[in-house]
Amino acid sequence: MKPQAGKNHSLRGASRTRFARVKNHSRFARVKGTHDTLPEAHAQWARIAAVAKQVLERAGAVQLTPPIFEYSEVFTKSVGESADLVVQKEMYTFVDAGARSLTLRPEFTAGVLRAFIEHGLHVRPSPIKLWSIGPVFRAEKPQRGRFRQFHQVNCELLGLDAPLLDAEAIALLYQIFSELGLRELVVKLGSVGDPKDRQAYNHYLREALTPLADRLSETSRERLRLNPMRVLDSKSAEDQAVVADLKRPLDFLGEAARVHFAQVQAYLSDWEIPFELEPNMVRGLDYYRRTAFEFHHGAIGAQSALCGGGRYDGLVEQLGGPPTPGVGWAFGLERLLDALQQEGALPTESARPLLYLIPMDEEAVGEVAKAALTLRRHGIVLHAYAPRNPGKGLKEADRAGAVLAALRGSREREQRAYQIKELASGAQFEVPEGELAAFLRHKARDNEANTLLR
Ligand code: AMP
Q: Which atom number of ligand 1 is nearest to the Cα of residue 140?
């Protein structure tokens, strides 16, 4: 892969603290377009993953994790020959020692459907909802919101062609984002029609755009050749000026696609999920049919799409499976975190230690370490690794954010007890060794709100 020269791709604004590259003298740096997820960001990822899991599994979804790489054909067969992934060689494809062409997944859908077919999951009650989380790889030009390794939460809803399933897919996404506290969401909804509608529209576009081709960007000229609809996707102002007066995909919907689309909208309106019609909605992959949607956020820069998805009836057959309609979506964790951060909707507190154990002599170092092993059943328990005087030990406990500190020295050993201090109130207790677990259990309950992530 040719590295991109020159540009500064560091994230702007508040994100900088999360992913900033600290100048150091190490010989190695991470590969451009990848990032390290630092401990603070992990707490936020965990929260997103937990909310997504809860919303999806309460709707009957089950988790499926395909491998990170697949035989290349799994992807080339599904994404379509006009997708940027193929045309612009954005897939990380390599030949292994056995001369097999393998590709790091550029998206989840193809691998999840391959697994669905390989394991005969279609025999399970329909619809089956499969969700996944993990890294995804695309050799795109790195910039804010566009990485070469990023992470997605993905969901496929399989087995029904009813518009109810499309609406449910969108509602689940909306619920995840809302529960995370995101407010400034714009849900854009469109339809790319049935294959014959797309064909008719592509034919119309080819006729209309061919005479204007010299006003189009090079990428759009290539798209005009392979899949004219993708010209609508161009971000270039010149291209947009050329297509501005042309008919839209929605003008070409056949009767069946139009009725289906109207029903999806009716459900969303009934469920009070606000959406905007996007007559130019075109997704980057060729497999979409009928409903297509994206959620955007205004404060995360040019790459404003938080998620994308749509219906892909026919794709399971294309991959060698039984006829199975389906609809799916994926959102990127990095862009979602950026959006949450811009809105100030990220938790700033992390989990607090319940107890900090302070050994006051050499013998107590081993004693507190041993006690910690069992006391951790009740919460986070940390300890000092060398003897401390009480003043220094308590300062450390405070800096660690602990709820309680426990001192252990020769006097406590004699008494078979710990001296405990509640750091917020200053209250002190002498707790016999045998009662320490019960004491902590009680305190953990009192402090639950403090010791768990918000
Ligand atoms: P797509 O399959 O391209 O619609 O991507 C679905 C979602 O994944 C997008 O809406 C983004 O949130 C995220 N995403 C896609 N490409 C990238 C990338 N290169 N870097 C970071 N996130 C991405």
A: 19
